[in-house]
Amino acid sequence: TIPGAMTALLAVMFGIQGLRALLPLALDEEVIWAFGFVPARYDSAVLAGQFPGGSGAEIWTFVTYAFLHADLGHIAFNMLWMLPFGSAVARRFGAVRFFVFLAVTAAAGAVAHLLPHPHEVATMIGASAAVSGAMAAAIRFAFQHGSFLSFRRQDAALAARVPALPLMRSLQSTSVICFLGIWFGL
Lower CB density within 10 Å: C or N end of the chain? Predict the structure, then answer.
């Protein structure tokens, strides 16, 4: 019952993790620095070219960091959260819009990290921002009657087409508020 876009995302994420596991440690670290998000990369006080990836990394790392994870536990946790919410959003949006949405949420997560940490030299990796984006998109329709988190759920394709609540109305829903409390608490 997993949509093709979600299956592809899982395959790519775990495939990248598997390939990185085969790399020598020094080369894996180079991959992390070239494709992980490093806020100091945008600090003019830092020497240009100090980080692998060159000027291209200043663009692609806003998204590529989301494909890298610290270890199997990190990727498993992210993908277990992504599975139900990402599947619902993928069914609702279709594959292309789903992948664009995940790229935008990953980039938004990088910007949200960059603003309070402009001089940070440590790399940020992981799909948490994209997972959070999928969760935020899904909760507007997730608790509606017949949707994927309701007790009277229909089939997955129909559940993904349940009308979404307007944002302000969804923020008045007890189910959504409880879910947000648990999510932010975790």
Answer: C
